[in-house]
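If I may wish for something, please sit down with the protein I am sending here and say whether tokens and residues agree:
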Amino acid sequence: MSGEGLVRGTPTDSSQVQLVTITPQLLTEDHAAMLNAAVPQALLSYQPEPYRVGPGDTLYITVWDHPELTSPAGSQQQTAANGRLVRSDGTLFYPYVGSVKVGGMTIEEVRQTIASKIAKYVERPQVDVSVVGYNSQHVLLQGAFMKTDPQSISTVPLTLGQALGTATINPDQANMSDLILSRDGHDYHLDLTAPGNGQGAAQNIYLKAGDRLLLPYNDSQEVYVMGEVLRPAAVTFRNAGDITLTQALGRAGGLNPVTADGKEVYVIRGAKNLENAPAKVFQLDARSPAAFALGDQFRVRPGDVVFVGAAGVTRWNRVLSQLLPSATLLSSAAAANYSATH
């Protein structure tokens, strides 16, 4: 397979393939793009709203100078035992007041509501409200975490960095280059290994109730090395960007010194998405040692196909190896037929 064949081919093929030569300029542009890869602004611009009480939360309501209202179970009991559970319909029961609708309220709104209702029985009540059990709002976690328990949203804003720290990433199994944060029906892909936009940027992203974090496993990270290499193979690695073109070729034993054409080293990218965008074919002329220096800076991605074309003499020898057996068979048949008729 030659570069001309990859690009020119049929009209349909050429419309689906874009040939790009690997040059120092290309590597500089790719490196700059990686450094400037922005965290989605929608994530950075989100600011947490005041916490709103929901079903399952437990509130501790203090009425100063009235311990019978503050700790009806007794002051010796733990705080949770004197807490008020918000029921599934968003209400809670409070002495003298009865059932109070608090679901969806902020802590300050709950305090004002309780104070206004109990004022009929207590003169100028001083009321304080705190949440002692956060059970209504969570962030869900899946994938290569050591701890995948849901994490509660509380009155203290929760950042992505804090959530990752609590969950503890499994470094041996996680694909840290593609953390997926799902929010409001949209998936945001974050590269935690990217310079300037990795785990440091995670400290500036606040999570909200209903967010889902998926950290994929790295068992599907592969580059396929084919063609005129010593050991064609699927080369595995942990994270996108972990392996270069030179390293991928090295793991496949390198170019076959007898059959390979050094100027026909290709990286085929995007072949699975031809319906939406043409595939890119990056070409490296690996006939000189300097070319491998370029290859050592070109980072391959999961799903890439590295293909090394055959030299012209190799292709001709293969054609001969296919034709000669057929020619020999035909010659033998002709000789046998001649002997039978004479």
Summary: The chain has eleven helices and 16 strands. The first strand starts at residue 17 and ends at 21. The mean pLDDT is 81.
